[in-house]
Specification:
By secondary structure, the protein is of the alpha/beta class. The protein has 2 domains: 11-47, no CATH class; 51-133, YaeB-like fold (2-Layer Sandwich), CATH 3.30.2310. It has helices at 11-19, 36-48, 57-65, 72-87, 117-120; strands spanning 54-55, 92-97, 100-105, 110-116, 130-133. A 5-stranded mixed beta sheet has the order 1-4-3-2-5. The longest helix has 16 residues, at 72-87. 16% of the residues are buried.
């Protein structure tokens, strides 16, 4: 038999060499052994979780200046209002909880400013595209 190339004497040897190799690592798995599907599900789950509501520096200053303290119930209702605004596609929302008014950037889950009823009566709210009254 004639030798093919430098190391094989027949087509069977070539076929055995390349076709009977151990299968490659599952292409869906990364180097760490976690599959793409697992990573995708983890990321989707993270997006579905409700983000914690943040207060901007300006909103925090307004709460302090106006001596506004949110109770746990009011905080929870504020978050529920922001969630409702998000479900309706509102980007900049006025959320009213009891006698408190909050302007919230809904996509960023950030309270931009806050005021109580005495200040909000005379004010005009601009740059909002929706309101939620809780």
């Amino acid at each position: 038999m004639n030798q093919i190339g430098n190391s094989f004497t027949s087509i069977e040897q070539v076929a055995n060499q390349y076709l009977n190799q151990p299968k490659e690592v599952n292409r869906e798995q990364s180097a760490s052994g976690v599959s793409f599907q697992d990573i995708l599900q983890q990321q989707l789950g993270a997006k579905e979780r409700v983000q914690e509501l943040k207060f901007s520096k300006h909103a925090t200053q307004r709460l302090d200046q106006r001596d506004i303290a949110l109770s746990a119930d009011q905080s929870q209702r504020l978050e529920a209002g922001v969630q409702k605004a998000s479900e309706k596609g509102i980007k900049e929302s006025l959320v009213i909880v009891d006698s408190l008014a909050f302007i919230v950037n809904v996509p960023n889950q950030t309270v931009v400013t806050a005021m109580d009823q005495t200040e909000s009566m005379d004010n005009v709210f601009t740059n909002i595209d929706g309101a939620v009254i809780i």
